[in-house]
């Protein structure tokens, strides 16, 4: 007696072509997602402040905003007020004018090295204008001194800020991996919830310890950084677990699609959110990658900044994920009881479909 194993039938040509086109479309979407923000990102609507005598500041504001939208200028009462606005992240730079003294440009490279370079360009232009004015007054070329002060500099361990930008990677990828692995390796909603709690707490301590204690990228209070990473990981992993509990394992696709392809490119981890075309920069701050990266930067360098919106955003996403888990568990239990009831009663006791 011989047995034969049936070979799988060949894929129809129509499906082959459709699959190939679909894969090409997915690759195209990935390319757009990761290149469009950098391609369209330009320096515009940068919040800066000017301080000094009214006549001088009005003239400077007109010069800074004439024919361009690079700056969004507001006014500070004095230098101390301007410094406070930078430390609270209400502004990215400042120009301080004083009667009888050279202008001073204030920067905060920890907020954005890109904006600090723009402000250095402003300082160079002010030097050129002052030198030209001095030369016109007495006919002698002069060199004007315009000082540049970095009010909130980056640490020596991360002088370019690239490490702080890279810190957003474990936030997104770590949360995604945690949610996906818990979905496939742990069964039972209660066990998944416990697994999520253990994962985010241990992960928060570990990642913050690596980035702060070992690499020196994060600054500030260690436990605050731990809390930020814990909540950020929970917001991503919890949402993936919630979607998977509600709609099945296909819910893991929420992570790559929502957080990696959509939210991560508009998170503004390296530049101000105003650099992106409106309203994408603002929308990016409503998702864990944007809120989490901003929170880590604030905790490291801007303790006076109001980080309440970032904490609330991460907490809301975490609560959303847990709510999805609860709803999914409730619906699953309801279906299980309904199936069990039909099995016990038998088909002869099943309700009349016309009367239900």
Q: What is this entry, summarized?
A:
With 356 residues, the protein is of the alpha/beta class. It has helices spanning 13-40, 54-65, 79-87, 113-138, 162-166, 168-185, 189-214, 222-247, 254-263, 280-284, 288-301, 308-345, and strands at 46-51, 71-76, 93-98, 101-107, 147-150. The chain has a five-stranded mixed beta sheet.
Description of the molecule:
It is a single chain. The protein is an alpha/beta fold and 356 residues long. It has a five-stranded mixed sheet. Helix 6 packs antiparallel against helix 9, helix 8 runs parallel beside helix 12 and helix 11 runs antiparallel to helix 12. It has twelve helices and five strands. The two termini are 54 Å apart. The C terminus is likely disordered. The chain is elongated.
Instruction: Tell me what portion of residues adopts beta-strand conformation.
Output: 5-15%
- Strand order across the biggest sheet? 2-1-3-4-5
Largest sheet: 5 strands, mixed
Number of beta-strand segments:
5
Could you say which overall geometry the principal axes of the C-alpha atoms support?
A: elongated
Structural category is alpha/beta
State the assembly state of the protein chains. Answer: single chain
Distance between the termini: 54 Å
Poorly predicted tracts of residues: 350-356
The whole-angstrom Rg is: 28 Å
* Helix and strand sequence: HEHEHEEHEHHHHHHHH
Count of DSSP helices?
Answer: 12
Helix content: 55-70%
Q: Quote the average pLDDT.
A: 87
